[in-house]
Design a protein that fits this description.
9 helices, 53% helix, NADH Oxidase, alpha+beta, binds flavin mononucleotide, 238 residues, 4 strands
């Protein structure tokens, strides 16, 4: 936190920024800082629709993200009609069921899980399925570098998703990621008739919040950061 605020002060004071530009930058820095601090995953929503003009603003924020080689490998399938959300929820639920039956899990637990998965998707006012299209990335003759390119596409798409989550928060909406599509990309593609090359990564459920987030804690910086050139590095490794 202290680091981020320090960085913002530096940017606000950069050469050439006149007083009004400076205060605009400081205002938007404060808003961004607040959005980063306040955003939480919201998993339950009020039923009202999200206007398509708002959806377009969320997508515009997403695609301002940086991407490897600026290839913009992200792809988005927007679902705001009941029938489409239900089709996806059904298909993913049945895939979840067959995976868990194959795992030998308890039938009641499977039923409960499938019901929860269905309602998370079908009851969200807005669902955005996030995919990558790897065709825009570089290709190499070896698997090692192709894997790196694939990861770059995934990293770029994750950055777009974070932009979208922050934009949703600043529109007064709640949102949550569901990683389930990563386990059944073919099911998602077939249910929504997506282009064959779109690889589903995750889906986002979005809407007006019907409750608070869980207030999940974060690890302290000291636990996860090594200052390689400082004394802390020595301490962290000892
Ligand atoms: C890649 C990724 C996948 C996630 N998948 C799920 C998911 O399948 N279901 C879910 O309820 N939350 C999911 N989340 C949300 C996390 O649980 C949540 O971000 C984390 O617990 C921190 O809470 P917060 O977002 O409220 O700060 C996912 C988050 C990320 C980044």
């Amino acid at each position: 936190m202290a680091l981020r605020r320090g960085a913002n002060r530096h940017r606000s004071g950069c050469a050439g920024a006149g007083p009004s530009r400076q205060s605009n930058v400081m205002n938007s820095d404060r808003k961004l800082s607040a959005a980063i601090d306040e955003r939480q995953s919201i998993r339950r929503f009020r039923p009202q629709r999200v206007a398509r003009t708002v959806v377009k603003r969320l997508l515009a924020a997403a695609i301002r993200a940086p991407s490897a080689h600026n290839r913009q490998p992200w792809r988005f399938a927007v679902l705001d009609e009941e029938a489409t959300k239900q089709r996806l929820a059904n298909a993913m639920g049945e895939r979840l069921r067959s995976d868990r039956i194959a795992d030998g899990d308890d039938a009641n637990a499977i039923d409960a899980d499938v019901r929860r998965s269905y309602s998370r998707i079908a009851d969200a006012p807005l669902v955005i399925v996030v995919c990558i299209d790897a065709r825009v990335m570089d290709r190499y003759p070896d698997a090692r570098r192709n894997q790196a390119e694939h990861l770059m596409a995934v990293q770029s798409t994750a950055m777009a998703v974070q932009n979208l989550l922050l934009a949703a928060h600043s529109e007064g909406l709640g949102a949550c990621i569901m990683c389930a599509p990563l386990f059944c990309p073919d099911t998602v593609r077939d249910a929504l008739d997506l282009p064959r090359e779109w690889q589903a990564q995750m889906l986002l459920t979005i809407g007006a919040a019907a409750g608070d987030g869980k207030g999940r804690p974060r690890r302290a910086a000291e636990e996860i950061v090594i200052w390689v050139s400082g004394e802390d590095a020595v301490r962290a490794r000892s």
